[in-house]
Amino acid sequence: MKSPSPLHHRILFPITDVYGGVVGYSGRSLDNLVMPKYINTSFPKSEHLYGLSHTYKEIVRVGFAYVVEGYFDVLVLWAHGIRNVVAVMGSHLSESQGWLLAKFCNEARVVWDGDVKKEREMFFPGILKQTSMPHEYDPDTYVMAFGKPKFIEYVSKTQVVDDTNQLKSKICRMI
Predict the structure, then answer these.
(1) Distance between CA atoms of 51 and 21, rounded to whole angstroms?
(2) pTM of the full predicted structure?
(3) Strand pairing partners for 59?
(4) 70-121, pLDDT tens digit by residue?
(5) Domains along the chain?
(6) DSSP letter string over the chain?
(7) CA angle, corner 110, sides to 107 and 113, nearest 5?
């Protein structure tokens, strides 16, 4: 029997605009062996940041945002008291996402998963910093293993990619 929907047997993440209006859904497979791991409904992924409608007030208050890759990263960091976090829902920070985030802060601290070190395109019209988690960790698994203080200590070692406020795309090689 065919499943009633491509999103059947998946954890659904509602994707919202900054005002909290739902623009689409992303469904993650419950079984890590089922591919593709994620299936999205049709929405412009590169124009939205997961979690921003819930985290923008804290981002404004502290003046910067942690930018992570995925939904679970945002949810787990939030659960551990890190409320100034958004996800790019992929492997780059697009120009649209950069401009959107810049409405709320002038510094982005990008924290990539530790599984892949490669060039990633990032755009942010302000201070842009980046780091990558140790090889075996993503931001969510790191904070679950070591706690909020160790996570903040680790990511405080982010490297400045650009602080010239140049409005250009940056290609960054992870080291």
Answers:
(1) 12
(2) 0.88
(3) none
(4) 999 999 999 999 999 999 998 899 999 999 999 999 999 999 999 876 677 8
(5) 10-43 (no CATH), 46-172 (3.40.1360.10)
(6) ---SSTTTTEEEEEEE-TTS-EEEEEEEESSTTSSSSEEE-SS-GGG--BTHHHHHHHHHHHS-EEEESSHHHHHHHHHTT--SEEE-SSS-B-HHHHHHHHTT-SEEEEEE-SS----EEE--SSEEEEEE--TT--HHHHHHHH-HHHHHHHHTTPEEEE-S---S-EEE---
(7) 170
